[in-house]
Amino acid sequence: MNLLCKGSTPLVIAAALALCVSCKSDSKEEKGKDKTSEKEAANSKPADTKPADTKPEEAKPEDDGTEEKIDPAHMEQDPNATDTVKAVDFKGKLPDDGLLEADQLKGKFHSIAGWTDKHGLHALVFSTTVSEKEDEVSSMLIADLFSREGDAWTSQRQFKASVDKCQFDTELKAQTGDWSITDLDKDGLGEVSFAWSVGCRSDVSPVTHKVLLVTFKDAEYKKYVLRGNTGIKMAGEVEGGEFKADKVFETAPKEFLAHAEMVWKNTSIETME
To answer: Is residue 254 part of a domain?
Structure first.
């Protein structure tokens, strides 16, 4: 812009010249500052952009898509199959499911022992038969091993002891106890143990006594037997009571023989005092 005009006084001209000098000086100074700023910017290092150390937030676990595990204790269990062997108390009667009838037995119902294992529900049912002819009595004790299969009970194996044509007193007794149901070899399959005493006698004398341990092995039911006679206890003394173990015990778990001997000790003594 032209600050001088025609007719201006010397004083005004001097003031205008001074103003122009000041403007140029300010312009040079600003330009110098701009160049200095650019030079400083070129020589300066970039600012440290690394964020200050702060504790990161914990990551929330992601859903892996798996279902919630259910506590087996709260799951509905199959009453006819379990990983552990458990005794079943039938209250001295045939099962109340109505599927095992008395007419399926070979004789008159006597007693029962039951258990569950990984193959389901089982029952060892004792029955007896008696036939008389003149003054002779023949009797039989039957142990029938049943397994529950679907909606039916199936006989797996039978064990029998008999007294034929006895003219005196018949001894025919089966014994079970809290020792009857076991899993001695821990294979999830139950063993059932029982004892019976069988004989015909007219005086105080021993009769035949057996302890049987039955188990499911190699796809079949096997029996392990101690054979001998009852011991008669009189006046604090025991007469008889010896037994011999079947050879099959030699290849069985050692717990089988130890258990059978314990059952023998608890069932073979007859007290006559």
So the answer is: yes
What burial class does residue 248 get, using C-beta atoms within 10 Å of its C-beta: 0-12 exposed, 13-18 middle, 19+ buried? middle
* Residue 16, pLDDT score: 41
Beta-ladder partners of 140: 129, 162
Query: In the structure, how many helices (H) and strands (E) does the chain have?
Result: 2, 14
Residue with the bigger pLDDT between 1 and 165: it is 165
Domain boundaries, position 137: 81-271
Residue type for position 211: V
Q: How far apart are CA 15 and CA 229, in angstroms?
A: 150
Q: Is residue 26 included in any domain, yes or no?
A: no
Both structure tokens of 156: 């797996």
The whole-angstrom separation of Cα 6 and Cα 134 is 174
Q: In the predicted model, is pLDDT for residue 113 greater than 50?
A: yes
Q: What is the pTM of this model?
A: 0.70
Number of domains in the chain: 1
Instruction: Please give, one letter per residue, the 3-state secondary structure of 156-205.
Output: EEEEEEEEEEECCEEEEEEECCCCCEECCCCCCCCEEEEEEEEEEECCCC
pLDDT digits (tens, 9 = 90+) for 40-54: 444 444 444 444 444
Q: Are 148 and 217 in contact (CB under 8 A)?
A: no
